[in-house]
């Protein structure tokens, strides 16, 4: 049926939209009648609103200026602005800092009795008790002349601090002992340290103006020094073999191993720890002046005279491959590492003697 020319434009639009309006009305009616669906829509709307408020409160700004050449959405820059809450500090309850208490290390007040263990040496024992090696020797008369007299099971006196530990004899005074063991220090300074040392105060009457000492009691001289008395060495007195090799003056390492004790005022040698039986070689050319047992703690020992003022000693050997009077060349096998004599474990005790003194082998051995 043809459209009537008399219908206006508004009437035509109403006729066209009528079916869509009816469908919309029916959909809204269905939604209103379906409560679960309405609840889901409301919850999602609330969640989106909460997320929006959270982002706004945390101070996050998203730079999504894509139209102006900015980064794409997956490359969006996120700028975090720290949230600084405003607090009323006058009402805040602040936690007081925990106090840090440093307990000072207390000086020992007794002389410790220490039993020597396998592989101990004077240096390791001194390090264990945080005193000097000299202090250990001065407190133990049997070791003072020869640190290698150390043996397993031996009981040592360990002084409370580094210095000279003496047993007061009749006639000793604080001043006389301070003079004897002052080293390079001022006598009055040494006397002050003796009198103020708590270890000494417990054993002697320092209230008396004359500082009365108790005979037979220990007296510790903190920082004191006992003058070194060189050990006497005996050179070979027999005839020099006509074929004796002469030393070069350049020493080589006598064996391979680990340095277990270095050269010092109390140990004028080096100890090289190595398994029993490790080869020992002549450090330089010369002739053998001693090859046998030593009665002063060295065990089986070899002395080589190098004919140029030097003598080398090799001690605590398990075996000897040379005899007295035999000429040897540098690097020649002369014995094997052992633990004979006064020894706490297998090692080579090696000395370089020049005249009546000892040289530090570490300064003369080849690199």
Can you describe this structure?
The chain is α+β, with helices and mostly antiparallel strands. It has 3 domains: 9-61, no CATH class; 112-222, Roll (Membrane-bound Lytic Murein Transglycosylase D, Chain A), CATH 3.10.350.10; 258-364, Glucose Permease (Domain IIA) (Distorted Sandwich). The chain contains 9 helices and 16 strands. It has helices spanning 9-33, 35-58, 122-128, 133-138, 141-144, 174-181, 187-196, 198-201, 361-364, and strands at 61-63, 77-79, 112-115, 155-158, 163-167, 218-222, 258-261, 270-273, 279-281, 286-294, 299-305, 310-320, 327-328, 333-337, 347-354, 357-359. The strands form 4 sheets. Strands 7, 8, 9, 10, 11, 12, 13, 14, 15 and 16 form a 10-stranded antiparallel beta sheet that branches. A two-stranded antiparallel sheet has the order 1-2. The longest helix is centred in the first third of the chain and has 25 residues, at 9-33. The radius of gyration is 46 Å and the shape is elongated. The relative contact order is 0.10. Residues 62-70 and 73-81 have low confidence and may be disordered.
């Amino acid at each position: 049926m043809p459209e009537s020319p008399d219908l206006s434009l508004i009437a035509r639009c109403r006729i066209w939209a009528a079916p869509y309006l009816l469908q919309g009305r029916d959909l809204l009616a269905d939604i209103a009648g379906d409560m679960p669906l309405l609840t889901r829509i409301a919850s999602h709307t609330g969640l989106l609103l909460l997320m929006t408020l959270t982002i706004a409160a945390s101070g996050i700004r998203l730079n999504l200026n894509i139209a102006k050449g900015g980064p794409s959405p997956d490359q969006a820059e996120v700028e975090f602005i720290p949230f600084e809450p405003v607090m009323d500090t006058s009402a805040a309850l602040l936690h007081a800092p925990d106090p840090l208490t440093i307990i000072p290390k207390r000086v020992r007040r007794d002389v410790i009795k220490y039993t020597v263990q396998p592989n101990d040496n004077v240096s390791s024992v001194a390090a264990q008790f945080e005193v000097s090696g000299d202090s250990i020797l001065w407190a133990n008369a049997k070791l003072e002349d020869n640190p290698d007299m150390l043996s397993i099971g031996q009981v040592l006196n360990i002084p409370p601090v580094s210095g000279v530990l003496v047993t007061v004899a009749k006639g000793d005074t604080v001043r006389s002992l301070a003079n004897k063991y002052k080293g390079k220090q001022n006598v009055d300074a040494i006397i002050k340290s003796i009198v103020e040392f708590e270890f000494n105060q417990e054993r002697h009457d320092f209230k008396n103006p004359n500082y009365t000492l108790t005979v037979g009691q220990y007296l510790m001289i903190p920082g004191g020094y006992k003058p070194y008395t060189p050990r006497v060495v005996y050179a070979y007195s027999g005839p020099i073999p006509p074929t004796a090799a002469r030393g070069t003056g350049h020493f080589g390492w006598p064996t391979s191993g680990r340095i277990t004790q270095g050269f010092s005022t109390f140990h004028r040698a080096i100890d090289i720890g190595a398994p029993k039986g490790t080869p020992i070689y002549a450090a330089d050319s010369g002739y053998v002046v001693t090859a046998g047992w030593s009665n002063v703690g060295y065990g089986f020992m070899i002395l080589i005279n190098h004919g140029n003022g030097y003598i080398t000693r090799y001690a605590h050997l398990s075996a000897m491959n040379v005899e007295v009077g035999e000429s040897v060349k540098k690097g020649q096998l002369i014995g094997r590492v052992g633990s004979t004599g006064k020894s706490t474990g297998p090692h080579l005790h090696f000395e370089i003697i020049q005249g009546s003194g000892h040289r530090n082998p570490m300064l003369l051995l080849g690199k």
